[in-house]
Specification:
Radius of gyration: 25 Å
Organism: Pukyongia salina
Number of domains: 3
Mean pLDDT: 89
Structural class: alpha+beta
CATH class of the largest domain: Alpha Beta
InterPro entries: ClpP/crotonase-like_dom_sf, PDZ, PDZ_sf, Peptidase_S41A, Tail-specific_protease
Helix content: 25-40%
Number of strands: 21
GO molecular function, one term: endopeptidase activity
Distance between the termini: 53 Å
Protein name: Peptidase S41
Shape: globular
Largest sheet: 6 strands, antiparallel
Pfam families: PDZ_2 (PF13180), Peptidase_S41 (PF03572)
Length: about 525
Amino acid sequence: MGIQKKYLPLLISVAIAAGVFIGSKLNFHDTNEKIFATNSKKDKLNRLIDYIDYEYVDQVNTDSIVDVTVNGILENLDPHSVYIPVDDYEDNANDMRGNFVGIGISFYPYKDSIAVIRAIEGGPAEKAGIKGGDRILYADGKPLFGSDIFRDSISEFLKGEINSKVMLTVYRPSENKMIEFKLKRKRVPLVSVDAAYKLTDEIGYIKVNRFSETTYAEFREALDELNDEGIETLVLDLRNNPGGYIYAAEKLVDEFLEDDKLMLITRNKSGEENRSYATRKGDFEKGKVYVLINENSASASEIVAGALQDNDKGTIIGRRSFGKGLVQREMALGDGSAVRLTIARYYTPTGRSIQKPYGNGNGDYYRDYENRYKNGELEDPENIQVADSLRFITPGGKVVYGGGGIIPDVFVPKDTSVENETLEYISRSGFMGYFIFEYLEKNRSFFSGMTFNQFADNFEIPESLKEEFYTYSAFENAQIDLRKYSDELGTALKANIAQQLFGTNAFEYFLNDGDAMLNKVMELEYSEAKKD
């Protein structure tokens, strides 16, 4: 595997582009008669497809032509109006619903079989006793092993209708025996709150990875538990959160703002405005809040950060956010596919739009990360370009800017060395996952029965494992020397082991060790304490 430094910003920008999405259910008023009225433009497209279908000399899949046409039309509108093909619709819907119907496992197609990484907490597989390392060999008698297995076809056998049953035949290597499990498929959560724990006795931490239908309920549950444990300050981590449903973001903001505080303004093509206000007593109106953002925090994440910043609530820490101020509504196209079409712009409470320009096309739009990398903005806030015409003042007298993302109150630079960027990528991308799985395969008996606290306090990453990873990753061949980040690599390896043994909360707990933005929070808290 070879990664050259000059290509790394491009790889990161591609990853950002893949992550950014948003859904909305705003009800601006367009009648069906107006939307679906017959006109010559539609007739022309329909007639062209019919000509190709019936007259063209070769057999052509006109469905694929339609898909290309739809994508071409949307790409000429804006970067966030997107087409969802039939084959992708269910996965997209599950992601935004925050659950799917299945047995509840994460797995690898490992060698020639299906290896369970971990049974999802509360899912049917965990309740039945399926464990990490188990191999699923048969589902209802259908073999799921061999050289021809495909991940998508595997999911078809493990997912299904709610309350439908499936008989699994499982081989457990640690006991060298076959076991049969009869499971009833249930709704399995796709969690959007990755982590919630206490940083100190007074400071709580919650990380939200997207805004789905279940996000607010997950957040409230996490916040309630931290409140019960007596926190006075909350760190809300929205880094790398690409967005989601606006209403989920509004409900979350409502926990921090007093009644009747303006949270958000949306405006459609006819100029019709919708203003959202805090409506009730939130659970953290009196508490202190820090919001962590970075260049990958987009859309609903920016709604949260902007609403709090414009109401002088809390402190925004990090780097300038992505800059997406467009609202989409999902619309069915009648054949199982759908389109997420931009229907409005949104504005923060001071009236600023944080949408960055997109007039030069989608390619230029998603190369924005490269531009920030090259102009030094990721390392020095003085390099952030702002326009005086987009200058706004909050009620508390703070100067804020529109025109492209949320600029934090407190800037934390990014280490842009190729080694750190590479380590950051491999820590969170799943690259380490396969390596760690193979390590655990050889050492499951060592970790058997170990609690999280025992793992955290007593387990240290051996230097030999780091050396194995250097060899496995082949970064030496790419002239990337991770050895100068030996401590950080050890933390990343421990976090990935913890993820497969204990879940995402443990994963974030270890990766946050020594995190620059959390260190900044502690520095600010210490300064405040000294003033008091």
